[in-house]
Design a protein that fits this description.
Length: 278
């Protein structure tokens, strides 16, 4: 019954013009397939097994999301102790360029997919599943597009989310919107290190202190970002950190692809089950 109701189209039983509702009586009148009990158990076991596999994949993804911060802490320790271990500077010392995204209105069509603040996750990753599009002039392409290794900084959001970051780990052609700042590091510094620092509990506390609240949102501008104190560990150590994060990202991509296949399989099994084909 659980799997039947998850996949059931209740639209014919829903009423209400201003507010849709499904009453208990309407629910009880919904027609569902009713195979013999042994067959129900067999189908439920197949679907439960497929669903459990999907749940395990999601657990692995959550673990891999947490692994970046674990590696960061393992390699660099507590940022509160950095001054006794490395030279200190500010983020601006590590950057080659810092630029705001375009304010052009995005839509459902255009040459360039555009990254918006919703594409930057709280865990410090890019989510490319929900993209809008814009057109850019030839002159604007280098100004408002990203390349692999750039860090994106969300300058305007809620008080809790402002300042979230992600590193571009794709060669896909992408533009960026105005609520994002593109940070491009100098060759001797690594954006993965800067991003992990700003995503750490220590970095989040700095972001909260800097955030200037307005109506329903908060802001940290590019100048304030560049003045944030940060350690300047050796280039070699930063590169080793990036290599470890890229390895984790490759594992995550592989698991994500498996989860997509699992979801497709589960949907197929559901459809076949309710057509009596399992």
């Amino acid at each position: 019954m659980y799997h039947t109701l998850r996949n059931y189209d209740f639209a014919p039983y829903i009423s209400g013009s201003t507010r849709s509702k499904l009453t208990q009586g309407q629910l009880l009148r919904a027609e569902v397939p009713l195979p013999p009990l042994d067959e129900q158990r067999r189908i439920a076991a197949i679907l439960d097994h497929a669903d459990a596999l999907r749940a395990k994949r999601r657990q692995v993804l959550a673990h891999l999301d947490d692994l970046t911060q674990a590696i960061f802490h393992d390699m660099f320790g507590d940022p509160a102790t950095w001054a006794s271990r490395w030279p200190m500077g500010v983020i601006g010392d590590m950057t080659q360029s810092v630029r705001y995204g375009t304010s052009a209105k995005a839509g459902d069509s255009g040459e360039w997919p555009i990254l918006r603040m919703g594409n930057v996750t709280d865990s410090g990753r890019l989510d490319l599943r929900d993209l809008k599009y814009i057109d850019l002039s030839v002159a604007d392409v280098p100004r408002y597009t990203v390349r692999r290794g750039d860090m994106l900084f969300n300058r305007t959001n809620s008080k809790e989310k402002v300042g979230k970051t992600a590193v571009v780990r794709t060669d896909r052609s992408l533009a960026l919107a105005g609520y994002l700042v593109r940070v491009r590091c100098k060759p001797e510094h690594q954006s993965e290190f800067v991003s992990a620092y700003l995503t750490s509990p220590f970095g989040q506390a700095i972001r909260r202190r800097l955030a200037k609240a307005a109506v329903n949102q908060a802001n940290i501008n590019a100048s304030e970002l560049q003045r944030i104190p940060i350690a300047l560990p050796s280039s070699d150590l930063q590169r080793k950190f990036t290599a470890r994060i890229e390895s984790v990202d490759a594992q995550r991509t592989a698991v994500q692809n498996l989860l997509i296949s699992d979801d497709q399989l589960f949907t197929s099994l559901q459809s076949r089950a309710f057509r009596g084909e399992l």
